[in-house]
């Protein structure tokens, strides 16, 4: 098995010319771009999986335009690939065979927020952080918080079933999507799901479409459920001498029946990368955990943090420092968000995996990853949402000459994750980056069933080709 690979048979120029002509009759001026800068920008995402420029990028603004674009692509046999903010980390928005990149970014209106029904209806191009702020202004809470919330879109979150630090207590995107307006690859527009909190009529197509990674159609409108905004949030930094102590601390807290809304672990390598960048960690810190609790009364929350601190102390924690105000809280979270770019400054290249293991296995996987790094001579940095077992394990390396070693490290990491009862991706999706590894955790019958589902929804095979499933061997 190897890292990302894709056949790059590009659609021929004649078909592209024909589809462009058809698209100009369904889109306004400025909604179709073919300049070199735009094509280059829409040919990459945050996955380091390579550059695959489309032949044309379109920016539909209505559901009818999305439907018309899809119909034109199918009629002319041209592949089409949806995208939001292109912050994806698995290559899901890369137009592998060229063709049309369909950007949903201009469908960025928050249509409604209902305080009585606790729901919001949004366009897919709404930036996640914009919705969070808009609902918070009305005393409501949209908990899913991918660390890219400042720029990723809700359509991309739906496609990847994104989650973040708060998933520990509140769950992920799927837990909040109750209804979708959905355009199938042949252009047909469906309404699936509901606007009520309960509802079980028919198959759960919302459940299928959320997490379908832009391969079964696109969301053109999303109905989300909200919850009341917790009145008080407290955040603490728990300092440990080593990452193993920190991992044991996380397991012990959860086993003691405490459910913080976040428990984020930062190992020694990641900690060194961000130390001093707007935040100074206490001397002697070998690893830290950011713990956050929320509720309605400060006293109860302080008590919970104090219990959490005691449990961590039994696992070797030297200090539990509670942020005094909003400014200090934000500094802690800014440090957490800065890890990914800061690691890039340590070594020129990195591969970031989002493995998940049962929570009881967190200390073991961290130990095994460190041993593997030492054995292969590669730096491994581990951080992330340890509270729900979801770790960002990063392999840092110097350059292409180490690529063989990196591929071996990646393979070993995913094999050990599955051996420990885990899964190869907790947030970022399979996309292109991990499709050759899906067979590690899913058997042939399950892969085959999913391929048949894809063919059922997309008989032309033109929507976002070559994603999720391992490449089929070509007969010679
Ligand atoms: C610094 C950083 C931190 C991150 N942290 C997290 C994190 O904590 N948790 C997490 O889950 N992810 C995280 N991510 C990954 C990424 O931000 C998420 O996967 C996000 O959901 C992608 O949204 P997007 O708008 O950028 O989508 P894109 O990257 O543009 O697309 C992602 C996929 O969605 C499909 N798609 C886009 N719009 C639609 C639509 N309307 N309908 C159907 N399919 C669509 C695309 O075809 C593609 O397959 C992080 C990324 C970065 C760069």
From TrEMBL:
Keywords: FAD, Flavoprotein, Oxidoreductase
Keyword check for Cytoplasm: no
Key word DNA repair present: no
InterPro entries: FAD-bd_oxidored_4_C, FAD-bd_PCMH, FAD-bd_PCMH-like_sf, FAD-bd_PCMH_sub1, FAD-bd_PCMH_sub2, FAD-linked_Oxase-like_C, FAD-linked_OxidoTrans_Type4, Oxid_FAD_bind_N
Gene Ontology molecular-function annotations: FAD binding; oxidoreductase activity
Cofactor: FAD
Gene3D superfamilies per the UniProt record, alphabetical: 3.30.465.10, 3.30.70.2190, 3.30.70.2740, Uridine Diphospho-n-acetylenolpyruvylglucosamine Reductase, domain 2, Vanillyl-alcohol Oxidase, Chain A, domain 4
Domain FAD-binding PCMH-type: 49-229
Pfam families, per database record: FAD-oxidase_C, FAD_binding_4
Assigned protein family: Belongs to the FAD-binding oxidoreductase/transferase type 4 family.
Protein known as: FAD-binding protein
């Amino acid at each position: 098995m190897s890292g990302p690979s894709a056949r790059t048979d590009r659609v021929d120029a004649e078909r592209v010319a024909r589809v462009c002509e058809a698209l100009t009759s369904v889109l306004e001026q400025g909604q179709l771009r073919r300049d070199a800068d735009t094509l280059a920008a829409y040919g990459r995402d945050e996955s380091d999986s390579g550059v695959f420029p489309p032949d044309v990028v379109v920016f539909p603004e209505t559901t009818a335009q999305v439907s018309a674009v899809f119909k034109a692509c199918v009629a002319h046999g041209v592949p089409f690939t949806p995208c939001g903010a292109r912050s994806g980390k698995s290559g899901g928005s890369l137009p592998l065979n060229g063709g049309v990149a369909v950007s949903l970014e201009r469908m960025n209106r928050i249509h409604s927020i209902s305080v009585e029904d606790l729901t919001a209806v949004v366009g897919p191009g709404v930036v996640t952080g914009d919705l969070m702020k808009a609902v918070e202004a009305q005393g409501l809470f949209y908990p899913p918080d991918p660390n890219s919330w400042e720029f990723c879109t809700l359509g991309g979150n739906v496609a990847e079933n994104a989650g973040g630090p708060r998933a520990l207590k509140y769950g992920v995107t799927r837990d909040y999507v109750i209804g979708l307006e959905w355009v199938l690859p042949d252009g047909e527009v469906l309404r699936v799901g509901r606007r009520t909190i309960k509802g079980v009529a028919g198959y759960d197509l919302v459940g299928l479409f959320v997490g379908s990674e832009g391969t079964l159609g696109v969301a053109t409108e999303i109905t989300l459920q909200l919850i009341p905004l917790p009145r008080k949030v407290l955040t603490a930094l728990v300092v440990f001498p080593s990452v193993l102590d920190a991992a044991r601390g996380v397991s012990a807290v959860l086993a003691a029946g405490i459910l913080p809304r976040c428990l984020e672990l930062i190992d020694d390598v990641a900690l060194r990368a961000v130390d001093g960048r707007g935040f100074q960690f206490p001397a002697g810190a070998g690893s830290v955990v950011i713990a956050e609790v929320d509720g309605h009364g400060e006293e109860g929350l302080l008590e919970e943090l104090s219990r959490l601190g005691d449990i961590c102390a039994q696992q070797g924690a030297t200090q539990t420092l509670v942020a005094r105000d909003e400014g200090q809280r934000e500094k802690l979270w800014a440090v957490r968000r800065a890890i990914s770019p800061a690691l890039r400054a340590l070594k020129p290249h990195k591969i970031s995996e989002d493995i998940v293991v049962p929570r009881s296995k967190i200390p073991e996987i961290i130990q095994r990853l460190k041993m593997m790094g030492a054995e292969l001579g590669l730096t491994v940095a581990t951080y992330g949402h340890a509270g729900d077992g979801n770790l960002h394990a990063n392999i840092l390396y110097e350059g292409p000459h180490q690529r063989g070693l990196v591929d071996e490290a990646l393979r070993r990491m995913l094999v050990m994750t599955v051996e420990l009862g885990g899964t190869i991706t907790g947030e970022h999706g399979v996309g292109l980056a991990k499709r050759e590894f899906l067979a590690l955790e899913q058997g042939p019958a399950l892969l085959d069933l999913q391929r048949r589902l894809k063919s059922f929804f997309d008989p032309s095979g033109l929507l976002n080709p070559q994603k999720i499933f391992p490449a089929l061997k070509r007969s010679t």
